[in-house]
Amino acid sequence: MVPLLLVLLLALILFGAGFAVKALWWIAVIVLVLWLLGFVARPKGGTGRWYRW
């Protein structure tokens, strides 16, 4: 019974980690697109930055 519970727990952890990694990939893609749009949409003044870091 204990080995079965351990296998189920491991499967649950790996499924959760897989979902989290997939969510992080989507977040990374969205941030990359916003970053690239910032280069396209920046002011024509030359050194103007679209972000305030």
Description:
The chain crosses the membrane at residues 26-43. It holds the Pfam family DUF5670. Keywords: Membrane, Transmembrane, Transmembrane helix. This is DUF5670 family protein. The protein is mainly alpha-helical and 53 residues long. 74% of the residues lie in helices and 0% in strands. The protein is built from one helix and no strands. It has one helix at residues 2-40. The longest helix is centred in the middle third of the chain and has 39 residues, at 2-40. It starts with a helix and ends in a 13-residue tail after the last helix. The mean pLDDT is 79.
Principal-axis shape: rod-shaped
Strand tally, please? 0
Q: What structural class results from the helix and strand content?
A: mainly alpha
| Structural Rg | 21 Å
Helix content: over 70%
Mean pLDDT: 79
Give the N-to-C terminal Cα separation.
55 Å
Q: What's the SSE pattern?
A: H
Taking the sheet with the most strands, its summary is: none
In the predicted model, the low-confidence regions spanning at least 5 consecutive residues are: none
Number of helices: 1
- Report strand %: under 5%
Keywords: Membrane, Transmembrane, Transmembrane helix
Organism: Streptomyces lateritius
Transmembrane segments: 26-43
Protein name: DUF5670 family protein
